[in-house]
Design a protein that fits this description.
14 helices; 16% strand; seven-stranded parallel beta sheet; alpha/beta
């Protein structure tokens, strides 16, 4: 089975990383894949190519569906069709809002079914600044209704989408997110700590780094000398540095930048406690990675995180937007010297399991297209 994944960008965010995580396992289910990215953001292209995955970029800058220059749109479709026709996919799998719009055009021309994955507990039409919200909502909902299957990366996302579009509730499936293989390796027999608290994720507003920094500042009053590591990159980096300096934590908080999965796993193994204060998450895959490495974890008490991880030993849920409660829960987690092995529960989030579920979705999509 050949599957063409169409994705907005390959700049290195969570959706792109999920796609990379499954590459080593697709052969287990008899799947061959190729990747098409719309925006000219090819940071991860070499990683896919190193695994032998065909990759093509469609735009010279950023994808804009409603271009005034019809020539650009024709060139984009022609380039996409040339690549897709050579690959000959059985299914097209779309990720993120621009791809929801573009992928069905290619699928219709090839006569193959489309599967859409929704990755965040946020309306897809609210994540783009390119279109008016009402127009984009109308287009994406039409694409979803025409798709062979719509899947979500977690039950929390499915429930959120079902509330937005009640008529589609019964048609939305769940294929839970997955961690890279490196996180499932054996836990270290002995740990040497470089960081007391670690955060991992894109440096973007919804990740709530400002709350985290203020909670760290409160915590320092009772636990001086703490060292914090922040892994990630993004638009909030300057704001985070500015607030860090304003709180006089320049020597206590280290911004570690972009890291590979192998490097992130190493950082987690050198950290005492994981912190995720996100205002919303589609799944919270970074939390699953930290829990795989046995870290006591403080998570923001939002439905997605509480439903998936809130009952596990060594997990503290902190009240949303409550700086004092986050500081208190971090203090409790730092006092927990246990290594929590959640592997039996977390095995549902392995890449191999994810690919097996995807194969079932693809089979259903192809079967439905033949009727």
């Amino acid at each position: 089975m050949r599957v063409l994944h169409i994705i907005d960008t390959l700049r290195g965010g969570g959706v792109e990383t999920l796609l990379l995580n499954i590459v080593p396992h697709v052969h287990e289910q008899g799947i061959e894949l190729a990747v098409m990215h719309l925006h000219n953001e090819p940071d991860m292209v070499p990683l896919f190519v190193s695994h032998g995955v065909p990759v093509v970029g469609i735009c010279k800058d950023r994808f804009r569906y409603f271009r005034r220059d019809r020539k650009d749109r024709v060139e984009q479709i022609d380039k996409a069709m040339a690549f897709a026709s050579e690959f000959r996919p059985d299914v097209i799998h779309a990720h993120l809002e621009c791809s929801y719009v573009f992928a069905p055009i290619i699928a219709d021309k090839l006569g193959v079914p489309v599967v859409h994955t929704v990755h965040t507990a946020r309306a897809p039409w609210q994540t783009s600044t390119q279109f008016r919200v009402a127009l984009l909502r109308k287009i994406i909902l039409r694409r979803f209704k025409q798709a062979a299957r719509v899947v979500c990366v977690g039950e929390g996302v499915r429930q959120y989408l079902a509330q937005l579009v009640p008529r589609m509730a019964r048609e939305i499936a769940v294929v839970e997110n997955c961690v890279a293989d490196v996180y499932t390796r054996p836990l270290p027999a002995k740990k040497l700590f470089d960081f007391d608290i670690v955060m991992v994720g894109r440096l973007s507003p919804e990740k709530n780094h400002a709350l985290a920094l203020r909670a760290f500042a409160r915590l320092r009053e009772i636990k001086p000398g703490l060292k914090v590591g922040i892994v990630g990159f993004g638009v909030e980096e300057d704001a985070i540095r500015s607030l860090r300096d304003e709180l006089d934590m320049g020597l206590s908080v280290e911004l570690l930048g972009r890291k590979s999965a192998e490097q992130i796993c190493d950082v987690l193994d050198r950290s005492r406690v994981y912190h995720m204060p996100s205002q919303f998450e589609g799944f919270g895959i970074s939390a699953a990675e930290a829990l795989y490495r046995g870290l006591p974890s403080v998570l923001n008490d939002i439905p997605v995180l509480s439903q998936l991880f809130g009952r596990l030993p060594g997990v503290w849920l902190a009240k949303d937007e409550d700086i004092d409660d986050h500081a208190e829960k971090l203090s409790l987690a730092l006092d927990d010297s246990s290594v929590h092995d959640h592997r039996d529960y977390l095995k549902r989030f392995t890449a191999s399991h994810h690919v097996a579920l995807l194969r079932a979705v693809y089979d259903e999509a192809i079967e439905s297209a033949h009727h």
